[in-house]
Design brief:
Shape: globular
Number of domains: 3
Number of strands: 19
CATH superfamily of the largest domain: 2-enoyl-CoA Hydratase, Chain A, domain 1
Oligomer: single chain
Number of helices: 30
Largest sheet: 8 strands, mixed
Strand content: 5-15%
Length: 731
């Protein structure tokens, strides 16, 4: 029997080896064809008397299996709108339960099956492994095992919520499933997810030995004497897991993410019934979740769009591929040092230039520290760390820039300083080299005036800390050419980050929209809303931090300087808001610059426990000290809609032209509430007409900053959506 996605052989001992190897793909995923093959393999193992046991392994060097094919799943998320809700749920259940039926057939085939996990096993890939009777993983710290579905708004739909808690207990399983965080082979062994670790290349030998010597073909939960590790949900030991778990769930998600709530229900309900009933429970919750707009938006933005952009979806067509091998980073401060680190990790020769050799060397020490941490954790060999560090050359001499394919300028946000380093660096560059400015606010077209070749000048906006932030915002000046954009995208891909492409404007896209979140918090403060309410509600929307504490992190003096520069550049066109006077008083009168000098909206004492600055009551009269649930919902909407309407303005002005850039840039760039799928998805989900009506109401109540731009009114009148327009444009 031939299989489409597996190679299948039986050795002289009667042990079958099924090698998962999807043709034409670098990574195995669970496509419809793969599930059909697994069902056929289970039937073959069951019925072929010559087979005494079987091993599942991978033929891909990249991993065992990355999980379900989310392209197929993304198409079905939300269901067919022409069908009734009941019919959509029924179809979603049948599709989801089909996966569970296949894996149940595998684990009840009557013969021992081993998973020889020789690479990463995530999502459905790990669920396949959990349905085998014994799991062996290669001893490689780079391998990851986990169920990351919750990160994109889903739950494991192939038995993950049923088998993992039955294997390691509800408490440990819930922590892994709800966070979606992967574990290493050693961690998986300690938790009990796998049974053994094997040296590279010995996985099959160990698997065959287990089948020959032990080979138990019955799962623990199918045996009469089975008990849930740690206790069932209604036992004295198990009940506390769910009591505390529900409280923690609300604290961490604020009920914004239905996936985490459904996961809790799957585990709680499923552990009280036999495994087959538990799998049906899981499939019902999975179907409901797949129909939920949160899941649809999160799959699209946090997987499909992110993947497309990461592969260069915005790269100009017709431009030949480029390989950036040498990059000069000008400015060895925190940002420049971080850029140098990610470049060196990608194998790029890096010139790290500053005004003094001490400053440049300090920037290299930053990389040394991060590499040392990787070595200590067993994620990087010392010789590789040494080779990576050697790629960075600290210098003060612009002659070292010669031969660079790209320059990334990361100096202070001052137009004159940036102009000076542009001229000094360009004097050393070849004709095809590209100059990139890592500015967060200053318009690229204006900065390019210092360049003798503005067509090769582009904005390359990194986010701090560079080593942890996955986004790079590429900004096109009026003269920026396709070659510069192609080089920049190829460079961002090489350092393993996600590029979005925006057109030039003050603040570009991310800084401009992020600033509205901070500003709205300050507007609320000026209105007399207690600062604790403001920051708590900010977090309740799904933002990573409250707007006041985030303003402290960014630095109040920087915000003040940027506003002053903007005021200077715009002249009479600049419109001051209530928060302008507040920030000016904080910085100029009180010398409160934010976390950087230990004084901002919060005080940052030596003991590390920040607290709100009591002096705020001297600046604003606090009138609202308590907020009921209805008032909280109003404030949450203000935060989300204020950012979304600014994103729509960016669309209307041509700053962003692709909804993927808008949503992915918001989530990765400033942490916009991931459960919404991003501000553009938020507008589409609300409906353009509904969103416009609500913004008009809010503009009347709170000010013209909520007024919807004309593009929204036009789209609402035509019954359009952003993603619908994008699909028609692509067609």
């Amino acid at each position: 029997m031939a299989f489409e996605t597996f190679r299948f052989d039986v050795d002289a001992d009667g042990i079958a080896v099924a090698v998962f190897d999807v043709p034409g793909r670098s990574m195995n995923t669970l496509t419809a064809e793969a599930l059909r093959d697994i069902a056929a393999i289970a039937a073959r193992i069951r019925t072929d008397n010559a087979i005494r046991g079987a091993i599942l392994t991978s033929g891909k060097p990249s991993g065992f299996c990355a999980g379900a094919d989310l392209g197929e799943m993304g198409d079905s998320a939300g269901g067919d709108a022409s069908l009734s809700e009941e019919e959509r749920l029924r179809r979603a259940f049948e599709n989801g339960y089909g996966f569970n039926r296949v894996l149940r057939e595998l684990e009840t085939c009557g013969k021992p099956v081993v998973a020889a996990i020789n690479g990463l096993a995530l999502g459905g890939g790990l669920e396949v492994c959990l349905a085998t009777h014994y799991r062996i993983v290669t001893d490689n710290p780079r391998i990851q095992l986990g169920l990351p579905e919750s990160k994109i708004g889903l739950l494991p739909g192939g038995g993950g919520t049923q088998r993992l808690p039955r294997l390691i207990g509800a408490q440990k399983a819930l922590e892994l499933i709800q966070t979606g965080n992967p574990v290493s082979p050693q961690e998986a062994l300690k938790l009990g997810i796998v049974n053994a670790i094997a040296a590279p290349g010995t996985e099959l030998l160990k698997a065959k030995d287990w089948i020959r010597t032990k080979g138990d073909p019955v799962q623990p939960w199918d045996k009469r004497d089975y008990k849930v590790p740690g206790g069932a949900p209604q036992s004295p030991g198990g009940s506390g897991v769910f009591t505390m778990g529900n409280a923690l769930l609300r604290k961490t998600t604020y009920n914004n993410f239905p996936a985490q709530k459904f996961i809790m229900s799957c585990v709680y309900e499923g552990l009280q019934v036999p495994i087959d009933a538990g799998l049906r429970i899981e499939s019902r919750y999975f179907a409901r979740l797949l129909m939920h707009p949160v899941a649809k938006n999160m799959i699209r933005s946090m997987f499909l769009s992110m993947q497309e952009l990461g592969k260069g979806a915005r790269r100009p067509r017709g431009e030949p591929p480029t390989d950036v091998k040498k990059v000069a980073v000008i400015g060895a401060g925190m940002m420049g040092a971080g850029i140098a680190y990610v470049q060196a990790l990608a194998g790029i020769e890096t010139i790290l230039l500053d005004t003094t050799i001490e400053a440049a060397q300090k920037g290299k020490v930053y990389t040394q520290g991060l590499l040392g941490q990787q070595v200590e954790r067993g994620r990087l060999a010392q010789d590789k760390a040494d080779a990576t560090l050697a790629l960075i050359k600290p210098t003060t001499d612009y002659a070292d820039v010669k031969g660079a394919d790209l320059v990334v300028e990361a100096v202070y946000e001052n137009r004159e300083i940036k102009a000076s380093v542009t001229k000094l660096a360009e004097a050393q560059l070849g004709p095809r080299a590209v100059f990139g400015s890592n500015t967060s606010t200053l318009p690229i077209t204006g900065l390019a005036e210092a360049s003798v070749r503005p067509e090769n000048f582009i904005g390359i906006h990194f986010f701090s800390p560079v080593d942890r932030m996955g986004l790079v915002e590429l900004i096109l000046g009026k003269a920026t050419g396709d070659h510069a954009l192609a080089v920049a995208i190829d460079y961002v891909k090489k350092i393993r980050k996600t590029p979005i492409v925006v057109n030039d404007a003050r603040g570009f896209y991310t800084s401009r929209c992020f600033g509205t979140y901070l500003a709205e918090g300050q507007e609320m403060l000026a209105e007399g809303i207690a600062p604790a309410i403001i920051d708590n509600v900010g977090r309740m929307t799904g933002m990573p931090r409250g707007p006041l504490e985030l303003a402290d992190d960014v630095a109040l003096d920087l915000a003040y300087k940027v506003r002053e520069q903007t005021r200077k550049d715009m002249g009479d066109r600049y419109e001051a808001g209530p928060s302008d006077a507040l920030i000016e008083a904080m910085v100029v009168k009180y010398g409160r610059f934010g976390r950087k000098n230990g004084k901002g909206f919060y005080d940052y004492p030596a003991d590390g426990k920040k607290r709100l600055w009591p002096g705020l009551t001297d600046l604003v009269a606090v009138r609202t000290r308590e907020a009921d649930p209805a008032a909280v919902e109003v404030l949450k909407k203000r935060f989300l809609y204020r950012q979304a309407v600014e994103a729509a303005r960016c669309f209307g002005e041509g700053v962003i032209t692709d909804p993927r850039d808008g949503d992915v840039g918001a989530i990765l760039g400033w942490g916009f509430a991931p459960w919404t799928g991003g501000p553009i998805s938020l507008i589409d989900t609300a409906g353009l007409a509904t969103f416009v009506t609500e913004c008009d109401r809010m503009a009347q109540a709170y000010g013209p900053r909520f007024a919807p731009p004309q593009i929204l009114r036009d789209m609402a009148a035509k019954g359009e959506t952003f993603y619908g327009n994008a699909a028609r444009k692509a067609a």
